[in-house]
């Protein structure tokens, strides 16, 4: 098989080594005569794998015992609803940051549950920039302040996070989770769908400060109530076993490759290759404020849609997939998650230069 160069925004590229491990391990897990995906989640074999996975998550991201860590189903999207159902108190409001497609979707779910204030609204700038973190001040009575750390579609990324004082800070980190160190202690809750940087679709990591549950709304359906997942160490119901196993293998790969610091270096190198081409070009351009450019989703454009279509044709011929911008914004986007080899990004950078030489 000739592997494609995979620039899809999600689900997205996995480390080849991990795909081989999944292939080799799918029939039988640790000599027990069964596959891990045929094993009860109440068995010691599952427990061993699960606990190793959670321990690696904690170790690599530096998560203290003040936090619970577990996996839920329903994608990152379910968290858009669960966060306000659990934490948007009826007597106050929550502060949201309208930073683009994902932040806005979360806010729109919250509006159905309670009162939402927009601390910041990037609509007028077409979501190409973010507020400066030191300027962000949550309302004193706020239930929480919510942000999306990396807008996957707009290609903008927070480089540092606001200090919200006593107001809980909650973040969707789906598309840059494990691509850099995170000051976990600054957050009351972090969640991330795993299908961008950590594995196949089907699981969402939740990192929850235990004390946040003291302020929780009660009388929620069981699955939607975080306290049930907390009390049961994430095993309230059947967890997404296959995804968790794959995440464990990806975490081992991350550890071998320098941990989150190693991933941050890789991300800086890879995104730098593309932004350098864009910045030194009078043909390609980036619509994004340079201070907030994403190291995961590089959004760029050409002078006309015809040229963009021609460019996409060239990338396809070169075995590159997923470079079309999201249908809501058009243009071009290279998603360059952790597992994408540096060589693949070099190949794209070269193709861009070549395309400019021929057409620019
Ligand atoms: C992909 C993505 C989501 C949606 O994830 P699902 O698992 O499809 O629900 C949410 N937020 C961000 C930032 C994303 O990149």
CATH class wording of the largest domain: Alpha Beta
Name the strands of the widest sheet in spatial order.
2-10-9-8-5-3-4
Averaged pLDDT:
97
The count of strands amounts to: 13
Rg over C-alpha atoms, rounded to the nearest angstrom:
21 Å
**What is the assigned CATH homologous superfamily of the largest domain?**
Type I PLP-dependent aspartate aminotransferase-like (Major domain)
Shape: globular
CATH fold label of the largest domain = Aspartate Aminotransferase, domain 2
Percent of residues in beta strands: 15-25%
Bound molecules: pyridoxal-5'-phosphate
Uncertain segments? none
Give the biggest beta sheet: 7 strands, mixed
CATH architecture designation of the largest domain? 3-Layer(aba) Sandwich
- Topology as H/E string? EHHEHEHEEEEEEEHHHEHEEH
So how many helices? 9
Helical percentage? 25-40%
Structural commentary:
Helices cover 36% and strands 15% of the residues. Helix 8 packs across helix 9. It is built from nine helices and 13 strands. The mean pLDDT is 97. The protein has two domains: 111 residues, Aspartate Aminotransferase, domain 1 (Alpha-Beta Complex); 241 residues, Aspartate Aminotransferase, domain 2 (3-Layer(aba) Sandwich). The strands form four sheets. The protein has a seven-stranded mixed β-sheet with strand order 2-10-9-8-5-3-4, sandwiched between helices. A two-stranded parallel ribbon has the order 1-12. The protein has 360 residues and is an alpha/beta fold.
């Amino acid at each position: 098989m000739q592997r494609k160069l995979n620039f899809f925004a999600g689900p997205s590229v996995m480390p080849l080594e991990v795909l081989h491990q999944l292939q080799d391990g799918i029939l039988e897990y640790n000599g027990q005569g069964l596959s891990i995906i045929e094993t009860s989640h109440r068995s010691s074999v599952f427990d061993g794998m699960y606990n190793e996975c959670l321990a690696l998550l904690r170790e690599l991201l530096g998560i203290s015992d003040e936090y619970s860590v577990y996996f839920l189903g329903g994608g990152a999207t379910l968290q858009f609803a669960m966060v306000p159902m659990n934490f948007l108190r009826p007597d106050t409001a929550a502060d949201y940051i309208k930073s683009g497609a994902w932040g806005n979707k979360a806010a729109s779910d919250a509006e159905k549950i309670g009162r939402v204030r927009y601390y910041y609204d990037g609509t007028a700038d077409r979501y190409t920039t973010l507020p400066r973190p030191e300027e962000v001040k949550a309302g004193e009575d706020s239930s929480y302040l919510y942000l999306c750390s990396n807008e996957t579609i707009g290609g903008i990324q927070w480089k540092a996070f606001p200090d919200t004082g006593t107001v809980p800070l909650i973040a969707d980190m789906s598309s840059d989770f494990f691509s850099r160190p995170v000051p976990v202690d600054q957050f009351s809750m972090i969640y991330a769908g795993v299908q961008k940087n950590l594995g196949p679709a089907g699981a969402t990591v939740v990192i929850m400060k235990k004390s946040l549950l003291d302020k929780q709304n009660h009388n929620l359906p069981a699955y939607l109530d975080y306290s049930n997942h907390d009390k049961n160490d994430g095993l309230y119901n059947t967890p997404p076993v296959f995804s968790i196993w794959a995440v464990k293998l990806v975490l081992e790969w991350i550890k071998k490759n320098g941990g989150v610091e190693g991933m941050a270096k890789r991300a800086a190198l890879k995104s730098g290759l593309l932004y350098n081409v864009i910045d030194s070009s009078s043909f390609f351009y980036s619509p994004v404020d340079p201070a907030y450019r994403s190291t995961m989703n590089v959004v760029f454009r050409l002078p006309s849609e015809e040229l963009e279509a021609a460019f996409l044709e060239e990338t396809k011929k070169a075995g590159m997939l997923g470079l079309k911008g999201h249908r809501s914004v058009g243009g071009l986007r290279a998603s360059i998650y952790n597992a994408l080899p540096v060589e693949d990004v070099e190949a794209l950078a070269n193709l861009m230069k070549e395309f400019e030489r021929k057409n620019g």
